[in-house]
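Lab notebook page, bench 4
Experiment: in silico fold of construct C2
Operator: M.H.
Input chain length: 153 residues
Purpose: comparison with the prior construct
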Amino acid sequence: MHLALFQPDIPQNTGTILRLCACLDIAAHIIEPAGFPVSDRHFRRSGMDYLDQVSITRHDSWGHFEQWRAATGGRLLLFTTKGSRSYLDHRYQATDILLLGRESAGVPDEVAAAADQRLRIPIKPGLRSLNVAMAAAMAVGEALRQTRPVEWI
């Protein structure tokens, strides 16, 4: 299982998501450019000492990320408020790549079009979206529930 962040722009959220990846043994990918340097104190504080425990791959562009994905063959699952299918109705595979967009803008149309599936987390009508770190935790939780052996649960 992989979790990819498209051009994250809030260091605290990114640090929190990377801590999640460390704790649940999920490979993390950051698709640049990020809106902050990895030396940012908020990023470091949110990730705490867990940042040394997570496998992080940085891709310097969307194109390079897509090259990596083509080589690995994983399905790209975009979590978006514009998704047509609930994330709870999807059948996950251990090789899936869960993609979350920028907190401020989501992903461009080109990225959304490249996704094998566009999934949404249902929320109360009239509200925009969840915090990206909260959405990541929900997405990873459901994907792992379906794909990990019972010993992990």
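Observations: The CA atoms of residues 3 and 98 lie 5 Å apart. The mean pLDDT is 91.
Next step: discuss at group meeting.
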